[in-house]
# Entry
Amino acid sequence: MPATPPKATYRIQVRPGFDLDATAAIVDYLDDLGVSHLYTAPLLTATPGSQHGYDVVDHRAVNPELGGEAARQRLLRALRDKQLGLVVDIVPNHAGIAVPVTNPAWWDVLRRGRDSSYADWFDIDWDRGRLLLPVLADDPAALNDLKLVDGELRYHEHRFPVADGTGDGDARAVHDRQHYELVSWRRGDAELTYRRFFAITTLAGLRVEDPAVFAATHELILRWAADGEVDGIRVDHPDGLRDPAGYLARLREAAPDAWLVVEKILEYGEELPDWPVDGTTGYDALAMVGGLFIDIDAEGDFTVLDTQLNGRQTSWEDLTHSTKMAAATQLLAAELTRLAALAPEVPTEQARAALAELAAAFDVYRGYPPDGARHLAAARSEAGRRRPDLVRALDAVTRRLRDPDDELSQRFPQLTGAVMAKGVEDTAFYRWTRFVALNEVGDSPTRFGVPPAEFHRFATAQQVRWPASMTTLSTHDTKRSEDIRARLAVLSELPGRWAEQVKSWMEYAPLPDPAFAHLLWQTAVGAWPIERERLHAYVEKAAREAAASTSWADPDPVFEQALHDVVDRMYDDPSLHDELTELAAAIAPAGWCNSLGQKLVQLTMPGVPDTYQGTELWDNSLVDPDNRRPVDFDVRREMLARIDAGWRPPVDTDGAAKLLVVSRTLRLRRAHPELFTTYRPVAAHGRVSRHVVAFDRGGAITVATRLPLGLARAGGWCDTALSLPVHDVKDLFTGRVYSGGETPLDNLLADYPVALLAPLTAAEEAAP
# Structure
């Protein structure tokens, strides 16, 4: 662990439309908010126009579209003036190749092939012939559009280099002499000769397991760390690397004082490997915190509703097996072919089938010692159950996969992670729509809610093992923002009303895919009111991701028109619009209660809390690019100033109550970290004690309401109370002082559904 990990971070999606100078301009606001560190999207040169930065093309320089090195220096000065630190996102697994001429290393590989000094940078299977580039239209005559211009090959807007001595003749003849071959975009998934990030052909896998590649691609970031200009590093997608443990050991050795977190998605019950890092990027915390505010008792009702809507009971296990098999054999067919070739002792088709079955049966993203052997054994058992005809092939490849020095064993985990991500996160999450608040990165749709006791066990373990791990509720990768999920959690307290309402809507405005229709109506209620064009964009992307009634590769115009027609009816049909608005308004207050509760829990539990840009107010963002929309920081700055001037906003005012909770909590963590060094559950006593979650972090006490509709039906807090310390404590949100002992919750939570209690002096410093 670094000597001083961040107290709290604030995530900014630095991009061409909000560059480093724009970020520097809000540093004073971030300081007022209470964070200790700015946490940015990748800063290195990315594909021109990139809105996210995860497609780095040049590791030697700051992205000029962000303002370049000069702007980075200006940002550093702004941060230092406020004594704030910097955490940067890095992308070791892949590089951007959409515009080859902007990536010097890739351009040189295309030009020189195996003789390029960068040939070892990329994970290319040279033994399969020329490097295939899937950029052509799906037309046998597409190469007729190829031109030779200024010594380069041009295909519409695409530019490609020409190897020395091969430029004579027409464009087709020159093309046939190159180290690469331009092919139809449809051939990418099946025939590519380079490893990709998942199924994205414009992101080529890097071989950072090679020390020379590591050094070249990390030199600038590590120089910043050595010079004290970077305090923390967030590692994107370590599961894609050939040797994540070795990579992280090398990174830790090169940056021994950096706060180091990894985007490792853990399945339920899975432990983070014993890596030299400070923890994860917080998806595990996201799932646990969100689950606290879902009524576990409603699971049966939602299962019945899902069965009625679909006309059959859907098995999550069978669904994910089929979607993962599709990912392995279709989207990732090229990677599967490469692996099968490493097992020549098994007939090719049997090797492909056995490896695909094992990947589909793998219950985590990838296995790591020592638990990897357990996951492999479980996958082998399940694969054999489903495909007894493959027993010999399964046994043969499994023996190979048990040998850590075998290349097949080293490459197979890169496939299982991609299969899990594409098959589950990006497909099954859009098909299995029983209760979509659970369909989130790091969560499981089958785990319907989290009892307080389970959350306390998780938090206690985090305090012991990973006290500096990041916690989060929203990121650039979440399917729905934290506040949408909080509102949807209210539906778990109204299963009967929801079932009646959604059946009525689906009958009134039918869609031929009932599972997706259920997702659509849940999303609309969770995000309402939402701009029409945003909902149109979301449902089209979500339906294509589901790949059930339409898809990215083969869009179905009839289904998509029907989908857009339903969306339009939400806005244009008066009765439908009124019903949707009425239900959204009815559940909004309880949703705000859940939002404040989960935010306070996330900000105060063990770990380093991150706040995603804009989510300090109510935020109804959907999956990217919707969650990368511009944030109005002027509104937030002005609202915070009003709060600091003494305004105590009601819960229903534009999210100001959330800003109150976020700012006061972050300021307390930054000013008094000694109040957040242990973890102890605080028990409530009384008839409705199940409706509160409370814990003491070593002086700072968190109190949050859960299941607010059930609480209201029970008549409120009644006799329920918390046992507080005997000395005086102050609530940072209301300013009230409590003298300790048995404190009634109807007094403690009279104004807000949450409270943060601290010793008087500390509370006064955090809440002027």
